[in-house]
Specification:
The chain is an alpha/beta fold. It has 27 helices and 34 strands. Helix 8 packs antiparallel against helix 11.
Length: about 950
């Protein structure tokens, strides 16, 4: 029978979006997803996810899709700028690059010759810290940090000082096998595509998802259970769960003895110099008590029966106990019972007990076992991998509190007690983690003969001897990182730099060099005062911070406060290394890194008025400056630059023999991976492979990475770890105890008297809980509410809220409060209200929302803009109705004695904010408002894109 003729039109169901496609890496958030950029007639036609990419597997969110409007933003800078008006006015003249670089060199060269520490080099949300930290080291300044100090250092340090890895994007739940997931303080802005993919798998399998968060958005909205906790009490909740597990003997003791220091003996000798330290042999190896032999034994030995409770008499007559006993004694205390913590956390005691039971059931009664043969670090072969299908994931919601370090550690202790660290179904490490606890690299603090620091400025303190302080114990860094005030500040303290530089504490700096750090607006605590510090002058009329060099791609609020502006490219015009030396994009089953490479030459990309742009990638500019300054490692013996630009550096620079920024296609022939000589064709190989490299971990090595022989050998071969020794997880932190002993007066390095009580209090070797400082130092009756600010799923950087497409989702923010809270304070839906903290008052519009626990109010961060910034129209809602909670957040504690930060790491305590609310007398515009910046405003006409492409397509 012949086919019936049809008059239906022939349709192309799979039209090509463009005439060319290029693969690169997204920069619209920290996911760093793989993208395909389709080009038509020299313009972007479409951005889609790369289905081959290990991070997002083709998924792309609103932010990634809106990268088109990021690239074509009217706020893009066009040429280098030299300030002509007063700082903060936004008045500049355009100059050429030769003049800009010559000027920057003339400022920096005398500093390096005189005292490199007079340069403070601090970067914001860049993803090139492997370069910027190395550059600071070669310059010789200790004053370098990235944004982690006001973002997530509690998360990083809490994990790296406990389990050798951490939450955030450095670890992940076992999405394939987890049966119970607890998300603690997880908002949707970070690592969102991998999390969404994983949550989809859990929902499909019927696994339970529990969201612990004062606010229920995004992930929490699809969770099976929302725990609307009071901010800052997550640690108490964790301790109550631990209390219940200990009471019920629902603990994985075999796991604890194999992989943690639960059985290591701790000296009990109050007042002695080694009280609370581990019992060690003459070679410094930790000891335990072998019940079978009735004697001390090496804690890392096999075929012994170590004691984990009970007192031991040492040969010198003193006593010691296993660290697990100290843990049990603490958390079995009735103060951590569900009934005791329930009211403070805002969680019913019965709910806490039920969650503890469900965790134990999922961990111990699911009988998950993978039929995978593996060999442990001691040579013992195991026929299967025994699972503990309980996963936890945590983010800024628990980190950004002044008790966040201990809360992060508390969650890791909870995981260890359940045997749920890198077991099937549990939290999993992503390469290059795990690392030894703590990681080996210490912060640099002395200069070599060539002027470079002896180590990178950021690192991990192992004891008081590693602090960056002078002979009197006073800080040597402008941000006071690695001082007795914040000893374990692994990321530095970006949020203290401007106050201290203005005050000359501990000394005056000459130049502040910043990259993509919007410190005069949404990246500042105490925003109004920060703007004052940036513009304040001394009695001679000179700025107290003499010079500010700033690099950004857009006309942000911070650009207005620079003396010299070095315009950066958009992310589609640049080279970047998403490096394993920096913030990796690995997954638990493999190591990955990636590149960005220019989809466009910026000289061909006109600005919004059709004028040519002359912009350069900041990394290449930094290398150029380094060469002009003759910095070691950047010029040869004749003074000739060693690197042509950042792309050349990415390929040829070696941090150690065979170790560079990129791990893929190394060796002269490109046939080596992980380690190998530089390959001149390396970038081309990445481009041919979609912009990324991925090396799968052998199946036998994918779990128990801290003590899996195959993994340790694999990781050592790639250069991730220095030896193949097993990595012991730390229930009890000897590093913390060393600081406590120093505060008690023991040792050569002791804190100045004014810091001793603080160090002794907060450097507890076991996780502890205390009231966040702002709540403890202000009146709960005066400021009864907690206030939180978080980023939405559809915006990440402050960049996002200048994006024409993303602005259509949200162009202004509200302060959200529970209807019951509104009723209590006489506020109606959409009333304008005054919000006050101990630090200040703002006027905003309120909106009712049932997705928040009643003692908390919240808003989206970084939506509010200063008028005139980002080349938004003069009456843009972001500037007139949008607002920042930052105006209410002080950079110091209410008492004024320390930064508003965690006392262990210096993490900015954004989420400790306490407020009061009342109906406002004025309406219609948020307050405070500031003088509009002098940047050229964009046209009020709608910003459209793509209509001409569609018209040409129809032609």
């Amino acid at each position: 029978m012949s086919a019936r003729p049809t008059n239906d039109p022939r349709l192309d169901l799979s039209p090509s979006p463009g005439d060319e496609v290029k693969h690169t890496t997204c920069y619209m958030c920290a996911c760093r997803c793989g993208i395909r950029v389709w080009i038509k007639d020299g313009q972007i036609r479409y951005i889609q996810g790369n289905p081959e990419h290990p991070v997002n597997k083709g998924v792309l969110c609103a932010k990634g899709s809106a990268g088109i409007m990021q690239h074509y933003s009217p706020a893009r800078l066009r040429k280098p700028l030299l300030r002509t008006g007063e700082r903060g006015s936004g008045e500049f003249r355009e100059i050429e690059w030769d003049e800009a670089l010559a000027l920057a060199t003339s400022w920096l060269k005398p500093i390096r010759e005189r005292n490199p520490d007079e340069l403070a080099f601090f970067t914001g949300r860049d993803q090139s810290q492997a370069l910027t930290g190395w550059w600071a080291q070669q310059f010789g300044t200790v004053n370098y940090a990235a944004h982690g100090g006001f973002c997530s250092v509690n998360m990083a340090a809490g994990g790296l000082y406990s389990i050798g890895g951490s939450f955030w994007e450095f670890g992940e739940p076992d999405w394939e096998h987890t049966r119970y997931l607890m998300m603690w303080g997880v908002a949707e802005d970070h690592d969102s595509n991998p999390i969404k993919l994983g949550l989809g798998k859990l929902k499909a399998r019927g696994a339970k998802i529990v969201a612990v968060n004062p606010v229920r958005t995004g992930y929490g909205a699809i969770a099976d259970e929302w725990i609307g906790i009071r901010p800052g009490t997550d640690g108490l909740f964790a301790f109550a769960l631990i209390h219940e597990l200990l009471n019920g003997d629902r603990i994985d003791f075999d796991y604890l003895v194999r992989y943690t220091n639960a059985h290591w003996l701790v000296i009990r000798d109050p007042g002695a110099a080694d009280d609370g330290l581990f019992v060690r042999d003459e070679e410094g190896r930790p000891l335990c008590w072998d019940c079978d032999a009735g004697a001390l034994a090496l804690a890392n030995a096999i075929d012994i029966q170590p004691r984990i409770v009970g007192e031991v008499t040492l040969p010198d007559g003193r006593t010691a106990v296993p660290s697990f006993q100290l843990l049990a004694e603490r958390y079995l205390d009735p103060q951590y019972s569900p009934d005791a913590v329930s009211e403070r956390c805002g969680i019913p005691a019965d709910t806490i007990r039920r969650i503890a039971r469900e965790l134990a059931q999922a961990a111990f009664e699911s009988h998950l076992e993978l039929p995978v043969r593996w060999t442990d670090a001691w040579g013992r072969t195991h026929d299967t991998m025994v699972g503990r299908p309980v996963s936890m994931h945590a983010m800024r919601g628990i980190s950004a509190h002044s008790n966040g370090f201990h809360t992060c550690r508390a969650l890791h202790v909870l995981q260890m007690l359940l045997g749920a660290v890198d077991a099937p179904g549990s939290f999993r490490y992503q390469p290059p983690f795990p690392k030894p606890v703590p990681p080996a690299n210490r912060p640099g603090k002395a200069r070599k003969d060539n002027g470079a620091l002896d180590a990178a400025p950021l690192g991990f303190v192992h004891g008081p001897e590693d602090l960056v302080v002078d002979a009197e114990g006073q800080p040597k860094r402008i941000d006071h990182a690695y001082s007795w005030s914040y000893p374990l500040s692994a990321h530095g303290l970006l949020h203290t730099v401007i106050r201290n530089a203005h005050a000359g504490d501990p000394y005056r700096i000459d130049t502040l060099l910043m990259f993509m750090a919007n410190m005069s607006w949404n990246s500042a605590m105490n925003t109004r005062e920060t703007m004052h510090w940036l513009t304040d002058k001394d009695e001679t009329g000179a700025y107290r911070i003499p010079r500010i060099i700033y690099s950004d791609a857009y006309a942000s609020e911070m650009v207005a406060y620079a003396d010299l502006v070095l315009p950066d490219t958009t992310y589609l015009e640049r080279h970047d290394a998403i490096s394993l030396l920096d913030r990796p994009i690995s997954d638990a089953d493999g190591a990955s890194d990636a590149i960005r490479h220019p989809v466009f030459d910026p000289s061909t990309q006109a600005d919004h008025e059709g004028r040519p742009r002359d912009v350069r990638g900041f990394q290449s500019v930094l290398l150029d400056l380094g060469a002009r300054l003759g910095l070691p490692g950047m010029v040869d013996e004749t003074g000739t630059p060693l690197y042509r630009d950042y792309a050349d550096y990415m390929v040829r620079h070696e941090r150690a023999p065979g170790v560079g920024l990129l791990a893929g296609w190394r060796g002269r022939n490109g046939d080596e991976h992980g380690k190998g000589a530089p390959n001149p064709d390396q970038l081309q190989r990445y481009i041919e492979h979609g912009g990324f490299w991925h090396a799968p971990i052998p199946e036998s090595a994918r779990y128990y990475k801290m003590a899996n022989r195959d993994y340790l050998q694999w990781a050592h071969r790639f250069g991730f770890i220095a030896t193949t020794d097993p990595i012991t997880l730390q229930l009890y932190s000897e590093t913390m105890q060393k600081f406590r002993l120093a505060a008690q007066g023991h040792g050569v390095n002791v804190p100045p008297p004014e810091h001793r009580e603080r160090v002794e209090t907060y450097f507890d070797p076991l996780p502890m809980w205390y009231e966040p400082f702002e709540g403890a130092q202000t009146s709960g009756e005066t400021f009864p509410l907690s206030a939180l600010t978080q980023r939405p799923m559809f915006m990440y950087h402050a960049w996002g809220s200048q994006n024409a497409w993303l602005r259509q989702i949200t162009a202004r923010n509200y302060l959200y409060l529970h209807p019951d809270t509104g009723l209590k304070y006489g506020i109606a839906d959409e009333d304008w209200i005054e919000v006050s903290s101990h630090h200040g008052t703002i006027t905003v519009q309120a909106k009712f929302a049932g997705n928040v626990q009643p003692d908390t109010v919240w808003t989206w961060n970084a939506i509010g803009k200063r008028r005139g910034a980002w080349r938004l129209s003069k009456d843009a809602p972001e500037g007139e109705q949008g607002f920042l909670l930052n105006h209410l957040i002080s950079d110091i504690t209410p008492r004024g004695d320390y930064a508003n930060a965690d006392p262990v790491t210096g993490q900015a305590a954004w989420f400790d904010l306490r407020v009061a609310i009342r109906k406002a007398d004025t309406t219609g515009m948020s307050a405070p408002q500031f003088t509009s910046l002098s940047f050229d405003a964009a046209s009020n006409r709608p910003l459209r894109y793509g209509a001409d492409l569609r018209a040409r397509g129809r032609g």
